[in-house]
Amino acid sequence: MHKPDPQIRRDAMPNPGSRSGPAKAQQANNKPGGPAVRAPATAARMRPRHWGVLASFGAAVLLPLTFIAFYLWFIADDRYVSTVGFTVRQEEGTSSTDLLGGLANLTGGGSSKEGDVLYEFIRSQKIVNEIDQSLGLREYFSSHWSSDPFFALKTDPSIEDLVSYWGRSVRVSYDQGTGLTELSVITFDPGMAQAIAAEIVSESQGMVNQLNEQARADAIRYANLELEQAEDRLKQTRASLVEFRTRTQIVDLQADIQARMGVVSNLQQRLAVELVAFDELSGTTNKDDPRYTQAVRRIGVIRDRILEERSTFAKTEVLSTGEDYPTLISEFEGLTVEREFAEEAYRAALATRDSALANATRQSQYLVTYIAPTLAESAEHPQRFTLFGLVALFTCLGWGIIVLTYYSIRDKA
Q: 271 and 220 in one domain?
Protein backbone atom coordinates (compact mmCIF):
# COMPACT_ATOMS: atom_id res chain seq x y z
CA MET A 1 0.00 0.00 0.00
CA HIS A 2 1.23 3.48 -0.89
CA LYS A 3 1.76 5.74 2.11
CA PRO A 4 1.52 9.53 1.83
CA ASP A 5 4.61 11.52 2.41
CA PRO A 6 4.62 12.96 5.93
CA GLN A 7 6.52 16.01 4.78
CA ILE A 8 3.91 16.87 2.18
CA ARG A 9 1.10 16.43 4.70
CA ARG A 10 2.83 18.76 7.17
CA ASP A 11 3.29 21.41 4.50
CA ALA A 12 -0.39 21.25 3.53
CA MET A 13 -1.64 21.77 7.09
CA PRO A 14 -1.92 25.42 8.17
CA ASN A 15 -0.01 26.70 11.14
CA PRO A 16 -2.43 27.60 13.94
CA GLY A 17 -0.19 30.34 15.24
CA SER A 18 0.22 32.01 11.87
CA ARG A 19 -2.42 34.49 10.55
CA SER A 20 -1.45 33.71 7.01
CA GLY A 21 -2.51 30.08 7.33
CA PRO A 22 -5.89 30.53 5.58
CA ALA A 23 -4.37 32.75 2.96
CA LYS A 24 -1.69 30.20 2.19
CA ALA A 25 -4.30 27.46 2.05
CA GLN A 26 -6.33 29.66 -0.28
CA GLN A 27 -3.29 30.16 -2.48
CA ALA A 28 -2.49 26.44 -2.42
CA ASN A 29 -6.03 25.60 -3.42
CA ASN A 30 -5.96 28.18 -6.19
CA LYS A 31 -2.83 26.67 -7.76
CA PRO A 32 -3.28 25.14 -11.14
CA GLY A 33 -4.85 21.74 -10.81
CA GLY A 34 -6.23 22.40 -7.27
CA PRO A 35 -9.99 22.58 -6.33
CA ALA A 36 -11.77 26.00 -6.55
CA VAL A 37 -13.20 27.14 -3.19
CA ARG A 38 -15.31 30.30 -2.69
CA ALA A 39 -14.48 32.83 -0.06
CA PRO A 40 -16.53 32.50 3.18
CA ALA A 41 -19.78 34.62 3.40
CA THR A 42 -19.62 37.82 5.32
CA ALA A 43 -21.78 38.34 8.43
CA ALA A 44 -25.44 39.45 7.80
CA ARG A 45 -26.31 43.02 8.66
CA MET A 46 -29.40 45.25 8.58
CA ARG A 47 -30.04 46.97 5.28
CA PRO A 48 -32.36 49.89 4.52
CA ARG A 49 -35.10 47.62 3.13
CA HIS A 50 -35.09 45.61 6.35
CA TRP A 51 -35.60 48.76 8.37
CA GLY A 52 -38.43 49.68 6.00
CA VAL A 53 -40.16 46.34 6.57
CA LEU A 54 -39.91 46.76 10.34
CA ALA A 55 -41.22 50.30 10.07
CA SER A 56 -44.16 49.13 7.98
CA PHE A 57 -44.95 46.41 10.55
CA GLY A 58 -45.04 49.01 13.27
CA ALA A 59 -47.19 51.39 11.23
CA ALA A 60 -49.56 48.80 9.76
CA VAL A 61 -49.84 46.36 12.68
CA LEU A 62 -48.51 47.56 16.01
CA LEU A 63 -49.85 51.10 15.88
CA PRO A 64 -53.47 50.10 14.93
CA LEU A 65 -53.48 47.29 17.47
CA THR A 66 -52.30 49.67 20.17
CA PHE A 67 -55.05 52.14 19.31
CA ILE A 68 -57.72 49.44 19.14
CA ALA A 69 -56.62 47.90 22.44
CA PHE A 70 -56.69 51.31 24.09
CA TYR A 71 -60.17 52.03 22.67
CA LEU A 72 -61.62 48.65 23.62
CA TRP A 73 -60.33 48.59 27.20
CA PHE A 74 -60.43 52.29 28.14
CA ILE A 75 -63.02 54.02 25.90
CA ALA A 76 -65.71 51.55 24.71
CA ASP A 77 -68.77 51.36 26.95
CA ASP A 78 -70.12 48.06 28.20
CA ARG A 79 -73.18 46.73 26.43
CA TYR A 80 -75.75 44.22 27.66
CA VAL A 81 -77.77 41.55 25.87
CA SER A 82 -81.42 40.57 26.28
CA THR A 83 -82.51 37.36 24.57
CA VAL A 84 -86.05 36.40 23.57
CA GLY A 85 -87.43 33.44 21.60
CA PHE A 86 -90.87 32.88 20.10
CA THR A 87 -92.72 31.00 17.38
CA VAL A 88 -96.06 31.14 15.59
CA ARG A 89 -98.50 28.37 16.45
CA GLN A 90 -101.85 27.42 14.91
CA GLU A 91 -104.85 26.48 17.01
CA GLU A 92 -105.66 22.80 16.66
CA GLY A 93 -108.94 21.97 14.98
CA THR A 94 -109.82 25.55 14.04
CA SER A 95 -107.61 26.00 11.05
CA SER A 96 -109.18 28.04 8.31
CA THR A 97 -107.84 25.42 5.94
CA ASP A 98 -110.04 22.78 7.58
CA LEU A 99 -113.06 25.04 7.78
CA LEU A 100 -112.99 26.64 4.38
CA GLY A 101 -111.76 23.82 2.19
CA GLY A 102 -111.06 25.40 -1.17
CA LEU A 103 -110.22 28.75 0.45
CA ALA A 104 -107.10 27.40 2.16
CA ASN A 105 -104.77 29.50 0.08
CA LEU A 106 -106.61 32.64 1.17
CA THR A 107 -106.20 32.06 4.88
CA GLY A 108 -102.53 31.06 5.02
CA GLY A 109 -100.90 27.69 5.32
CA GLY A 110 -98.79 27.26 8.44
CA SER A 111 -96.35 28.83 10.84
CA SER A 112 -93.51 28.76 8.32
CA LYS A 113 -94.94 31.57 6.20
CA GLU A 114 -95.78 33.67 9.24
CA GLY A 115 -92.25 33.09 10.57
CA ASP A 116 -90.79 34.40 7.32
CA VAL A 117 -93.04 37.44 7.55
CA LEU A 118 -92.01 38.12 11.15
CA TYR A 119 -88.31 37.74 10.30
CA GLU A 120 -88.58 40.46 7.67
CA PHE A 121 -90.87 42.56 9.88
CA ILE A 122 -88.38 42.63 12.78
CA ARG A 123 -85.71 43.94 10.41
CA SER A 124 -88.00 46.48 8.73
CA GLN A 125 -88.34 50.24 9.11
CA LYS A 126 -91.93 49.92 10.34
CA ILE A 127 -91.06 48.21 13.63
CA VAL A 128 -88.13 50.61 14.15
CA ASN A 129 -90.53 53.57 13.82
CA GLU A 130 -93.03 52.01 16.20
CA ILE A 131 -90.48 51.24 18.92
CA ASP A 132 -88.76 54.60 18.41
CA GLN A 133 -92.04 56.38 19.14
CA SER A 134 -92.64 54.33 22.29
CA LEU A 135 -89.09 54.12 23.73
CA GLY A 136 -87.16 56.94 22.06
CA LEU A 137 -84.47 54.90 20.32
CA ARG A 138 -82.79 57.87 18.62
CA GLU A 139 -82.16 59.77 21.83
CA TYR A 140 -81.05 56.68 23.72
CA PHE A 141 -78.59 55.25 21.19
CA SER A 142 -77.13 58.66 20.27
CA SER A 143 -76.66 59.67 23.93
CA HIS A 144 -73.46 57.54 24.07
CA TRP A 145 -71.93 59.14 20.96
CA SER A 146 -69.61 61.40 22.97
CA SER A 147 -68.21 58.56 25.09
CA ASP A 148 -68.25 55.70 22.57
CA PRO A 149 -68.50 57.00 18.98
CA PHE A 150 -67.67 53.64 17.38
CA PHE A 151 -70.40 51.53 19.02
CA ALA A 152 -73.00 54.29 19.50
CA LEU A 153 -75.38 56.00 17.07
CA LYS A 154 -74.38 59.40 15.78
CA THR A 155 -76.26 62.45 16.95
CA ASP A 156 -79.33 63.64 15.02
CA PRO A 157 -79.62 60.43 12.97
CA SER A 158 -81.98 59.91 10.04
CA ILE A 159 -84.40 57.01 9.91
CA GLU A 160 -82.02 55.21 7.54
CA ASP A 161 -79.20 55.60 10.07
CA LEU A 162 -81.45 54.30 12.82
CA VAL A 163 -82.50 51.27 10.75
CA SER A 164 -78.85 50.53 9.94
CA TYR A 165 -77.90 50.76 13.63
CA TRP A 166 -80.93 48.59 14.46
CA GLY A 167 -79.43 45.84 12.33
CA ARG A 168 -76.29 45.98 14.49
CA SER A 169 -78.15 46.10 17.81
CA VAL A 170 -80.88 43.51 17.10
CA ARG A 171 -79.64 40.18 15.79
CA VAL A 172 -82.37 37.83 14.54
CA SER A 173 -81.98 34.09 14.07
CA TYR A 174 -84.81 32.20 12.34
CA ASP A 175 -85.00 28.45 11.65
CA GLN A 176 -87.37 27.70 8.77
CA GLY A 177 -87.42 24.00 9.62
CA THR A 178 -88.75 24.40 13.17
CA GLY A 179 -90.28 27.88 12.83
CA LEU A 180 -88.38 29.10 15.92
CA THR A 181 -87.21 32.70 16.06
CA GLU A 182 -84.57 33.93 18.51
CA LEU A 183 -83.24 37.45 18.73
CA SER A 184 -80.68 39.26 20.85
CA VAL A 185 -80.98 42.94 21.71
CA ILE A 186 -77.67 44.68 22.51
CA THR A 187 -77.83 48.05 24.31
CA PHE A 188 -75.86 50.08 26.84
CA ASP A 189 -78.33 49.32 29.63
CA PRO A 190 -79.79 45.90 30.61
CA GLY A 191 -83.22 47.36 31.37
CA MET A 192 -83.42 49.07 27.98
CA ALA A 193 -82.41 45.86 26.23
CA GLN A 194 -85.19 43.98 27.99
CA ALA A 195 -87.71 46.71 27.19
CA ILE A 196 -86.81 46.68 23.49
CA ALA A 197 -87.09 42.87 23.41
CA ALA A 198 -90.54 43.06 25.04
CA GLU A 199 -91.65 45.70 22.50
CA ILE A 200 -90.48 43.48 19.64
CA VAL A 201 -92.60 40.61 20.99
CA SER A 202 -95.60 42.93 21.34
CA GLU A 203 -95.22 44.31 17.81
CA SER A 204 -94.78 40.78 16.44
CA GLN A 205 -97.97 39.66 18.17
CA GLY A 206 -99.74 42.63 16.61
CA MET A 207 -98.44 41.61 13.20
CA VAL A 208 -99.73 38.05 13.69
CA ASN A 209 -103.14 39.43 14.71
CA GLN A 210 -103.14 41.63 11.64
CA LEU A 211 -102.37 38.64 9.44
CA ASN A 212 -105.22 36.73 11.11
CA GLU A 213 -107.66 39.58 10.59
CA GLN A 214 -106.65 40.02 6.99
CA ALA A 215 -106.95 36.29 6.32
CA ARG A 216 -110.38 36.13 7.96
CA ALA A 217 -111.57 39.21 6.07
CA ASP A 218 -110.40 37.73 2.78
CA ALA A 219 -112.05 34.40 3.60
CA ILE A 220 -115.39 36.02 4.46
CA ARG A 221 -115.25 38.28 1.41
CA TYR A 222 -114.57 35.44 -0.99
CA ALA A 223 -117.14 33.22 0.75
CA ASN A 224 -119.79 35.92 0.31
CA LEU A 225 -118.77 36.35 -3.30
CA GLU A 226 -119.06 32.61 -3.92
CA LEU A 227 -122.44 32.56 -2.17
CA GLU A 228 -123.72 35.42 -4.34
CA GLN A 229 -122.60 33.65 -7.49
CA ALA A 230 -124.28 30.40 -6.39
CA GLU A 231 -127.46 32.28 -5.51
CA ASP A 232 -127.56 34.04 -8.89
CA ARG A 233 -127.04 30.74 -10.65
CA LEU A 234 -129.85 29.11 -8.69
CA LYS A 235 -132.18 32.00 -9.53
CA GLN A 236 -131.34 31.70 -13.22
CA THR A 237 -132.03 27.95 -13.30
CA ARG A 238 -135.34 28.39 -11.49
CA ALA A 239 -136.31 31.23 -13.83
CA SER A 240 -135.52 29.00 -16.81
CA LEU A 241 -137.72 26.27 -15.38
CA VAL A 242 -140.58 28.73 -14.83
CA GLU A 243 -140.20 30.01 -18.38
CA PHE A 244 -140.39 26.41 -19.66
CA ARG A 245 -143.62 25.76 -17.78
CA THR A 246 -145.11 29.03 -18.98
CA ARG A 247 -144.21 28.33 -22.59
CA THR A 248 -145.48 24.73 -22.61
CA GLN A 249 -148.43 25.36 -20.23
CA ILE A 250 -147.40 22.20 -18.43
CA VAL A 251 -146.98 22.60 -14.70
CA ASP A 252 -145.48 19.18 -14.10
CA LEU A 253 -144.18 17.47 -17.20
CA GLN A 254 -143.55 14.23 -15.36
CA ALA A 255 -147.17 14.01 -14.22
CA ASP A 256 -148.39 14.78 -17.74
CA ILE A 257 -146.16 12.09 -19.19
CA GLN A 258 -147.30 9.58 -16.60
CA ALA A 259 -150.94 10.34 -17.45
CA ARG A 260 -150.32 9.77 -21.13
CA MET A 261 -148.29 6.64 -20.51
CA GLY A 262 -151.08 5.33 -18.24
CA VAL A 263 -153.24 4.70 -21.36
CA VAL A 264 -150.49 2.58 -22.86
CA SER A 265 -150.10 0.70 -19.59
CA ASN A 266 -153.83 -0.08 -19.46
CA LEU A 267 -153.77 -1.30 -23.06
CA GLN A 268 -150.82 -3.52 -22.30
CA GLN A 269 -152.66 -5.02 -19.33
CA ARG A 270 -155.74 -5.56 -21.51
CA LEU A 271 -153.54 -7.19 -24.18
CA ALA A 272 -152.08 -9.56 -21.61
CA VAL A 273 -155.56 -10.61 -20.50
CA GLU A 274 -156.71 -11.22 -24.09
CA LEU A 275 -153.60 -13.24 -24.85
CA VAL A 276 -154.27 -15.52 -21.89
CA ALA A 277 -157.89 -15.94 -22.94
CA PHE A 278 -156.80 -16.64 -26.50
CA ASP A 279 -154.41 -19.34 -25.32
CA GLU A 280 -157.23 -21.01 -23.37
CA LEU A 281 -159.58 -20.75 -26.33
CA SER A 282 -157.03 -22.18 -28.75
CA GLY A 283 -156.85 -25.35 -26.71
CA THR A 284 -160.59 -26.08 -26.92
CA THR A 285 -161.70 -24.74 -30.32
CA ASN A 286 -160.53 -24.70 -33.91
CA LYS A 287 -159.84 -21.74 -36.16
CA ASP A 288 -163.31 -21.83 -37.71
CA ASP A 289 -164.98 -21.03 -34.40
CA PRO A 290 -166.31 -17.41 -34.34
CA ARG A 291 -164.98 -16.94 -30.83
CA TYR A 292 -161.50 -17.69 -32.10
CA THR A 293 -161.88 -15.13 -34.89
CA GLN A 294 -163.14 -12.47 -32.45
CA ALA A 295 -160.27 -13.09 -30.03
CA VAL A 296 -157.72 -12.68 -32.79
CA ARG A 297 -159.43 -9.49 -33.89
CA ARG A 298 -159.45 -8.03 -30.37
CA ILE A 299 -155.75 -8.80 -29.90
CA GLY A 300 -154.91 -7.12 -33.21
CA VAL A 301 -156.96 -4.05 -32.35
CA ILE A 302 -155.28 -3.67 -28.96
CA ARG A 303 -151.81 -3.99 -30.45
CA ASP A 304 -152.59 -1.42 -33.13
CA ARG A 305 -153.89 0.91 -30.49
CA ILE A 306 -150.74 0.56 -28.44
CA LEU A 307 -148.61 1.33 -31.47
CA GLU A 308 -150.75 4.33 -32.30
CA GLU A 309 -150.54 5.70 -28.77
CA ARG A 310 -146.77 5.34 -28.73
CA SER A 311 -146.48 6.92 -32.14
CA THR A 312 -148.75 9.76 -31.06
CA PHE A 313 -146.67 10.35 -27.92
CA ALA A 314 -143.43 10.46 -29.93
CA LYS A 315 -144.64 12.58 -32.84
CA THR A 316 -147.56 14.68 -31.69
CA GLU A 317 -146.72 18.31 -31.11
CA VAL A 318 -147.61 19.87 -27.80
CA LEU A 319 -150.10 22.68 -28.20
CA SER A 320 -148.72 26.24 -28.45
CA THR A 321 -145.09 24.98 -28.49
CA GLY A 322 -144.48 23.45 -31.89
CA GLU A 323 -142.30 20.78 -30.21
CA ASP A 324 -142.89 17.11 -29.55
CA TYR A 325 -142.77 15.37 -26.23
CA PRO A 326 -139.26 13.83 -26.53
CA THR A 327 -137.76 17.27 -27.21
CA LEU A 328 -139.62 18.76 -24.26
CA ILE A 329 -138.60 15.88 -22.02
CA SER A 330 -134.92 16.39 -22.91
CA GLU A 331 -135.15 20.12 -22.23
CA PHE A 332 -137.02 19.58 -18.97
CA GLU A 333 -134.52 17.02 -17.69
CA GLY A 334 -131.61 19.34 -18.54
CA LEU A 335 -133.22 22.21 -16.63
CA THR A 336 -133.99 19.92 -13.70
CA VAL A 337 -130.39 18.63 -13.46
CA GLU A 338 -129.00 22.16 -13.68
CA ARG A 339 -131.36 23.32 -10.94
CA GLU A 340 -130.34 20.44 -8.66
CA PHE A 341 -126.65 21.16 -9.24
CA ALA A 342 -127.22 24.87 -8.54
CA GLU A 343 -129.01 23.97 -5.30
CA GLU A 344 -126.10 21.77 -4.18
CA ALA A 345 -123.59 24.53 -5.02
CA TYR A 346 -125.69 27.04 -3.12
CA ARG A 347 -125.86 24.83 -0.03
CA ALA A 348 -122.07 24.31 -0.15
CA ALA A 349 -121.41 28.04 -0.53
CA LEU A 350 -123.78 28.80 2.34
CA ALA A 351 -121.96 26.29 4.58
CA THR A 352 -118.62 27.82 3.63
CA ARG A 353 -119.85 31.30 4.47
CA ASP A 354 -121.19 30.13 7.83
CA SER A 355 -117.85 28.44 8.59
CA ALA A 356 -115.97 31.63 7.70
CA LEU A 357 -118.19 33.67 10.00
CA ALA A 358 -117.73 31.15 12.80
CA ASN A 359 -113.96 31.16 12.34
CA ALA A 360 -113.86 34.96 12.40
CA THR A 361 -114.52 34.91 16.14
CA ARG A 362 -111.46 32.75 16.83
CA GLN A 363 -107.73 33.48 16.80
CA SER A 364 -106.43 30.63 14.69
CA GLN A 365 -102.77 31.72 14.87
CA TYR A 366 -100.95 33.23 17.83
CA LEU A 367 -97.44 34.01 19.03
CA VAL A 368 -95.90 31.68 21.62
CA THR A 369 -92.93 33.03 23.61
CA TYR A 370 -90.77 30.15 24.76
CA ILE A 371 -87.96 32.44 26.02
CA ALA A 372 -89.17 35.53 27.87
CA PRO A 373 -87.07 38.71 27.47
CA THR A 374 -84.09 38.21 29.76
CA LEU A 375 -82.48 40.82 32.03
CA ALA A 376 -78.67 40.77 31.84
CA GLU A 377 -76.52 41.04 34.97
CA SER A 378 -73.12 41.34 33.29
CA ALA A 379 -71.93 42.94 30.07
CA GLU A 380 -71.24 40.66 27.12
CA HIS A 381 -70.16 43.35 24.66
CA PRO A 382 -67.88 44.56 23.38
CA GLN A 383 -66.11 41.23 23.15
CA ARG A 384 -62.71 42.79 23.63
CA PHE A 385 -60.41 39.80 23.30
CA THR A 386 -62.33 38.45 20.31
CA LEU A 387 -62.31 41.78 18.48
CA PHE A 388 -58.66 42.40 19.30
CA GLY A 389 -57.70 38.91 18.12
CA LEU A 390 -59.61 39.29 14.85
CA VAL A 391 -58.07 42.69 14.15
CA ALA A 392 -54.60 41.35 14.94
CA LEU A 393 -55.12 38.37 12.67
CA PHE A 394 -56.32 40.37 9.69
CA THR A 395 -53.75 43.16 10.07
CA CYS A 396 -50.90 40.63 10.26
CA LEU A 397 -52.27 38.75 7.26
CA GLY A 398 -52.64 41.95 5.30
CA TRP A 399 -49.17 43.18 6.20
CA GLY A 400 -47.63 39.78 5.37
CA ILE A 401 -49.34 39.68 1.96
CA ILE A 402 -48.06 43.17 1.13
CA VAL A 403 -44.48 42.32 2.16
CA LEU A 404 -44.47 39.04 0.22
CA THR A 405 -45.83 40.83 -2.83
CA TYR A 406 -43.09 43.46 -2.55
CA TYR A 407 -40.29 40.89 -2.35
CA SER A 408 -41.80 38.86 -5.16
CA ILE A 409 -41.79 41.90 -7.43
CA ARG A 410 -38.26 42.87 -6.27
CA ASP A 411 -36.84 39.40 -7.01
CA LYS A 412 -38.31 39.40 -10.51
CA ALA A 413 -37.07 42.89 -11.32
A: no
